[in-house]
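User: structure tokens for this one?
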Amino acid sequence: MEIAPTISSFLTHVRVEKGLSLNTVAAYRRDLAKFESYAKKKKLTLESVTRDALVDFLSTLFRQKLESRTVARHLVTLRNFFRFAQMQDLIPADPTLNLESPKIRRSLPGYLRLEEIERLLAQPDDKTPIGLRDRAMLDVLYSTGLRVSELVNLRVMDIDRTVGCIRCIGKGDKERIVPIGKKALALVERYLRASRPLLAPAGKQVSSPTLFINRRGNPLTRVGVWKILSVYGRRAGLRVPLTPHMLRHSFATHLLEGGADLRSVQLMLGHSDISTTQIYTHVAEERLKQIYKAHHPRA
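Assistant:
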């Protein structure tokens, strides 16, 4: 049996029956497209895929200089795919059984120093509608630690200005409540009052419930936010290219440096496993080492 029809059925299954997010389904589609291309070159059918063939496929990914984390994600995709194929009686056995995941080297997340954050937040011209929107958006990202997908899906009604919290939907459609700082909240209120109504074609009202919109009155996209942040990062003269996740890393790191406990940071970030949050303790420890080396006479 050809692999392509099974991939199509699998993607429908994870989207409709399992209810996975569009981003996860898109990642599955990209991973399986690579595997399908490999299988065509090797003239493999669904039934003829073996453990050795999968090992060879993963090896080609390593030869393409992909990180171990990315290769491990491809393996997770393949495991889910072949498990589905076996459940549908399309293959007699699952070739991913007993296939070890590559060891992942945990790299420390990049983050901005406090002075870099201040320099970044000063870049947008909040006297213009677009500049005020961007300033509010940057402040919300740093003040809440939201993922970029969570930010672009925020609605105006998700902000509780009385309590000082926002409601967001994270990975796996899990809802969580995150505190938002007074400065960020004040900027959002200014944006809603003075900027957002102007971000629509002349003579039209903004109809989208989404909080952050573009100059056509439509919701901002993830790619749009990446581009906006990249521009401001360059203007601020940051030492590394700015990404939305870097502001999330900065949020978590600065909380821990300020004395926040790991469990509270986990809840605010929306991590299902606290081990994911623990990597930020290493960042804080590295920062302490740098301070010690810079200031202790016997360092």
